Amino acid sequence: MVLQDNANSYGSALVLSLLLLLPLLAKGCDMFTGQWVKDASYPLYDPSTCPFLRREFACKKNGRPDLDYPTFRWQPQGCKLARFNGVEFLQKNRGKKIMFVGDSLSLNQWQSLTCMLHSSVPKSPYTITTQGPISTFTFQEYGVEIKLDRNVYLVDIVSEKIGRVMKLDSINDGKNWLGMDTLIFNTWHWWSRRGPTQPWDFIQIGRNITKDMDRVAAFEIALGTWGKWVDTVVDTRKTRVFFQGISPSHYNGALWGERAGQTCAGQTEPLLGTTYPGGLPTEVGVLKRALGKITKPVTLLDITMLSLLRKDGHPSIYGLGGRTNNDCSHWCLSGVPDTWNEILYNYML
Question: Which of 149, 327, 334, 338 is catalytic?
């Protein structure tokens, strides 16, 4: 459906959002400001015990020689995150459905969570099924379904006579997201794509069709459409909504104090301290502005800064393309997305 501007008012949203945060605020816990510290008890799992781990994230199996990168733990200032407990997570979510919606960074986080859970109950039976764009990992003993919907823009792309049209004001695929107990959304990395890998030919807003437009502006319009969908369709008394936040890339060493041509390749340790020399990317402010317009409670997993500090966490040449593709966008597993899920776990306690 094409969303209209008649989203119902939801006056208790701000109060509910604050109530959801009270346990953490009471502890003085800003989970997203802190630093990475070495911890001999990490990683949370050995990726070799995760038989379904995809090649693009299996850096150790692909020959990455340095193995310190999974041994860092995120330490927020003034508090400590509860350590992830997979059995508790499964028991708490018994009979429930959790869905990640987004691009390959959502796939990265989905794979991380399923590995974290499988390693906690290695003898517990599971199934993995795929139907269209939706993959479902089911822990049968607990009736827990961890789903992934590969939807890179959140808004619709429709094949028409003129070609593939991205409709910035339409979300028909939202029907796939109904009936979930938890939703974790993500979009950004595909918005700058051009050329053969761009999966659309035109952009449409209302009746206006254009060949292209400012991509950040298009991103913000799409987020507004998604926000109206949340306000109009989602019953947040039954479904908790998260937004994954912006996962950063590391292709320009000048942003962290090295030469401009330096990338994530060969990086073996995080940046020290709590801030990133290059600052936050523009799209973070765009996302926060869009989330601020949603009346229903949506929790931002504000993982950008903590991930910016992890220039060492990417597959680089130990990903899907090997030495022909230096991947500084995705993340090795085990690795940084485990921390995203550990924070998600702390919100769900």
Answer: 327
Q: For the chain, how many residues are written?
A: 349
pLDDT tens digits for 30-40?
999 999 999 99
Nearest alpha-carbon partner for 333 in 25, 10, 64, 31? 64
Quick check: helix, strand or coil at residue 346?
helix
Summarize pLDDT for 264-295 with one digit per residue, the tens.
999 999 999 999 999 999 999 999 999 999 99
Among residues 189, 247, 330, 334, the one annotated as catalytic is 330
Cα 298 from Cα 11, distance rounded (Å): 14
0.85 cut: is pTM over it? yes
Which residues sit opposite 127 in a β-bridge?
138
Both tokens assigned to 84: 């992830």
Distance of CA 167 to the CA centre of its chain: 23
Strand partners, 242: 184, 299
104 tagged catalytic? yes
Is 250 catalytic? The answer is no
Report how far residue 270's alpha carbon sits from residue 310's, in angstroms, rounded to the nearest whole number.
5
